[in-house]
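Long-time lurker, finally posting.

We've been working with DNA primase (Acetobacter senegalensis) and I want a structural starting point before designing mutants. I don't trust myself to interpret raw outputs, so I'm hoping someone here can both generate the structure tokens and explain anything notable. Sequence follows.
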Amino acid sequence: MAHQSHLRPDSARIGTIDFPTVNRAALAALPALLGRWLPDGKKQGHEWVSRNPKRGDRKPGSFSVNLNTGRWADFAEADARGGDVISLAAYLASVTQYEAACELAKMLGLKGGAE
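Top reply, 14 upvotes:
Generated this for you. Predicted structure of DNA primase:
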């Protein structure tokens, strides 16, 4: 059997997930998700502004999520930023983006996610 280095060792077991579909569904549900994940935040224009729960943030302001696109950033930490809801979920839960996508797919009731 030929070695296939592009596959994760557990890829046959974990299946695949449709990241664009999960991201679209998560973006549609983003206000509800943010209310759960960042409950001390509030909507300011097209942004959800809150404290970053992953560091000792004392007041809201430097951590925000764009409600239209899902892009997010902690402007106090250069490497804390991402372009979509899956990356935000992964960051907040300290899991891989694959794991975050699987969890979001389940949470949102999507079929055809990871098997």
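Before you design anything, note these points.
The longest strand covers residues 47-50.
Residues 25 and 66 are 15 Å apart (CA to CA).
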